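Lecture notes, unit on protein representations.

Consider one protein chain, 141 amino acids long.
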Amino acid sequence: MAEIHFDETIEVLSIEDKQNKRVYRIVAKSENGEFYLELDVHSSLYSMLPGEKYRMVISNSLHLDGSDVSAYFPQGKQESLADEFEFVMHGVLFKVSEAKGCNTEVVVYISFGGLQLMLRGDLLKMHQFSNRKLFLLLRKM
């Protein structure tokens, strides 16, 4: 079974333009307010707007059985978590740290080949981030 590290509905609060016009950073929070995140998105690959809601999942694999994803992933040949989503990125967890000024929250940093995710939330709900290779999946609600 694929190990799901994060599965929440998020709402985009704002968009910050970066120096590069192809990339923007969304600022969002989970629907229940327990998580805060900043995510870099390539503008020509996926569009997100303030006020919109998305289901966001972070998993260790795209395969439903949790097996490793090889370099070759033929579409339509095997059921996948990606079948339920519009946008998928593969990345590497590079840092987990305690949130400044709050010993009950942690901050997780994941790099997607130059695009980054900063996810802040409750220590008890974020402790399972141990796999180095992760997939981020998004679908507009």
